[in-house]
Write a structure and sequence with these properties.
sequence-specific DNA binding, LysR_subst-bd, 5-stranded mixed beta sheet, 3 domains, 302 residues, transcription regulation, alpha/beta, LysR-type_TF_proteobact-type, 11 helices, DNA-binding transcription factor activity, D-Maltodextrin-Binding Protein, domain 2
Length: 302
């Protein structure tokens, strides 16, 4: 007969919240959001068809039945901890992590940093697929999805890790050949566009107080990474996302002809299915992205 086991991630969230007497403390222990713990508890309450906590202002208190339930399952979790410790944590987190990420971000930011992740976490293999589909339209289930945000999707926890702005960038050779001292000088240049982001240059020119400027030429590409490569090759000037050109600026492949203005843009965020939000490998990867994002921001402003 099939065993009637409750959702294990929901059970783990309940055990931590019940043991600690706080959703906030449980979230900190499990490296997830307060909302993720609350959602897991609701899932378990629905599965059991019974309430587990009484909400009293900002506190949560176990119901008498839930206290008895916790007393029974608590030792089981402790046995799991001890058994896993004996077996070895590297074996416990060795399954491949599946990641779905935006193509340009993957090519220009994530891939150059993945070798570092493997050096820091050799027991965690990562399989990366690229897609620009919205989170809710993906047909496959992934451990981690990287998209712009912050957005809210039912059944997912969200963590921003890398903010972004848009600024003009070009090759230093182009700037040497045709110097730029003010936005009006862009009349002598080729402006590079991306078909999926047609408003970038018009919005920037308006913010730079030259909304009617006519460039010498314009080229449009269907992918952002092609637009940026054209800028590196000296073909023209692109509106570069700061997060994705940090390495090129540091290496001298690109320069920013202007200090500003800068166009605001969405941040890069991780979206994790709630049932995966307590997975050790998932949280290792998301925490690593946040550290690398902070390091990238520091390098970009230094």
């Amino acid at each position: 007969m099939k065993r009637a086991l409750p959702p294990l991630n929901a059970l783990r969230a309940f055990e931590a919240a019940g043991r600690l007497g706080s959703f906030k403390d449980a979230a900190a222990e499990l490296h997830v959001t307060h909302g993720a713990v609350s959602q897991h508890v609701r899932v378990l309450e629905e599965w059991l068809a019974a309430p587990l906590f009484e909400r009293r202002n900002r506190r949560v208190v176990l119901t008498p039945a839930a206290k008895a339930y916790l007393d029974e399952i608590g030792p089981v979790f402790e046995q799991l901890v001890q058994a896993t410790s004996r077996y070895g944590i590297s074996a416990a987190i060795s399954r491949t992590l599946s990641v779905n990420s935006i193509a340009t971000f993957t090519l220009r930011w994530l891939v150059p940093r993945l070798a570092k992740f493997h050096l820091e976490h050799p027991g965690v293999d990562v399989n990366v697929e690229t897609s620009n589909e919205p989170v809710e339209s993906l047909k496959e289930t992934y451990d981690v999805i990287i998209r712009g945000g912050p957005d809210t999707f039912y059944g997912y926890s969200m963590r921003p890790f890398l903010p972004e702005e848009r600024v003009p960038v070009c090759s230093p050779a182009l700037l040497k050949r045709l110097p730029i001292r003010m936005p009006e000088d862009l009349r002598e240049h080729t402006l590079l566009h991306t078909s999926s982001l047609p408003r970038l240059w018009p919005d920037w020119l308006a913010k730079a107080h030259v909304p009617s400027l006519n460039p010498a030429a314009a080229l449009t590409f269907d992918h952002f990474y092609l637009t940026l490569q054209a800028a590196i090759d000296g073909i023209g000037i692109a509106m570069g996302p700061t997060a994705l050109v940090t390495d090129d600026l540091a290496a001298g492949r690109l320069v920013m002809p202007f200090d500003g203005p800068r166009l605001p843009s969405r941040s890069y965020c991780t979206y994790v299915p709630l049932e995966r939000s307590t997975d050790d490998r998932v949280n290792l990867f998301c925490a690593w992205l946040e550290r690398e994002g902070a390091r990238s921001r520091t390098e970009g402003t230094s």
